[in-house]
Amino acid sequence: MSWQQYVDEHLMCEIEGNHLAAAAIIGHDGSVWAQSSSFPQFKPEEITGIMRDFDEPGTLAPTGLYLGGTKYMVIQGEPNAVIRGKKGPGGVTIKKTTMALIIGIYDEPMTPGQCNMIVERLGDYLVDQGF
């Protein structure tokens, strides 16, 4: 399966009538493996900041998480595994795998829990596959 198929068929799938607003699989170095057409243009330093927070949990909390120039308030996560962010009625979930970041951006009516489930389920599968 291609990386684009993982985005199109797994991350952008329908769950209880809702879809993610945008999704991507990005290498730890910031290289785009695959993304939805709606995924925002991000800056390399935004990915660097996310990777730093995985290495040193809590570094993004004071300044916020930026992705595509959008600032998200960092909320609960799992050290070195998941970062979650919130902005108004939407947010972002980022799952770190061995080689990549699985990113899902959602907006209402999708719930944070639905986004977490989609992103983390694919992330866990890719970790099991060695990615």
From TrEMBL:
Q: Which InterPro entries match?
A: PFN (IPR048278), PFN_euk (IPR005455), PFN_sf (IPR036140), Profilin_CS (IPR027310)
**What's a Pfam family this protein contains?**
Profilin
Where in the sequence is the signal peptide annotated? none
The compartments listed are:
Cytoplasm, Cytoskeleton
Q: Which GO terms describe its molecular function?
A: actin binding
Q: Please tell me one Gene Ontology term that the record gives under cellular component.
A: cytoskeleton
Q: Which key words are in the record?
A: Actin-binding, Cytoplasm, Cytoskeleton
Chief location category? cytoplasm
The protein's matches in PROSITE patterns, at most eight in alphabetical order, are given as: PROFILIN
Q: Which family does it belong to?
A: Belongs to the profilin family.
Q: What does this protein do?
A: Binds to actin and affects the structure of the cytoskeleton. At high concentrations, profilin prevents the polymerization of actin, whereas it enhances it at low concentrations.
Q: Quaternary arrangement and interactors, per the entry?
A: Occurs in many kinds of cells as a complex with monomeric actin in a 1:1 ratio.
Please identify the protein, giving its name as recorded.
Answer: Profilin
